[in-house]
Known about the structure:
Blueprint: H1 8-31, H2 38-51, E1 55-56, E2 68-72, E3 75-77, E4 92-101, E5 104-113, H3 119-136, H4 145-158, E6 162-163, E7 169-171, E8 178-182, E9 199-202, E10 205-207, E11 213-215, E12 221-223, E13 229-231, E14 234-237, E15 244-245
Antiparallel strand pairs: 1-4, 2-4, 3-12, 4-5, 6-10, 7-8, 7-9, 9-14, 10-13, 11-12, 14-15
Amino acid sequence: MGITIKSENEIKKIRKAGLILAKTHELLAQTLKPGISTIELDQIAEEFIRSQGAAPSFKGLYGFPASICTSINEEVVHGIPSKKVKLKEGDIISIDIGVYLDGFHSDGAKTYAVGEIPRETKKLIDVTRESFYKGLQYAKAGNHLYEISTAIQQYVEANGFSVVRDLVGHGVGKKLHEDPQIPNYKLPGRGPKLQKGMVLAIEPMVNMGTYEVRILSNNTVVTRDGSLSAHYEHTIAITDGEPEILTIL
């Protein structure tokens, strides 16, 4: 389909969807505690998103049954909320949210600690988040896409973790997943040149062990070696100057 350049008005719509997404994350962060089930988190998110006049992007997408993805511990992405799955002290949970409003999507994910977690696990979450910001420094018109990818990979690996190769970030707009694909590791070449008006979901997925993953029968992606995984994602717009994060308060 090719990379679409968004107008100021289209970016404004994505920004509105992004604000609802950021508020949803804030609401869930306040609700997370040992004993809560992932289906409760899903219901809270869906109720809030719909109360804002928007819809959850993920519900029904590729057959996904819920409004948010709740991926716990070794689950990388696409964890399905369930009545049976209750959070425990010491877990980490990656919550991925998409919001659809007025014809446009926003997409964003964060990994949260449930209660107290070991220092190395906290480091995994912190490095994953920081790797996004390392990549963001290169998200400027005139640069090339793989400069973002390279910065993410270098930071993650310098901290002793690994970057998932089988899953990538993506463009966002009228569809949740648009071109270009945005790997979190260096590929040959430089990738497309970044232009003002591109809207991108940059989303490092970082494992404590090997970067290899496997896909379960329900399409949840898990680390091959059972090690912990963290995820951090924002939807951003390329501008004339510094990039704008569209999924923050």
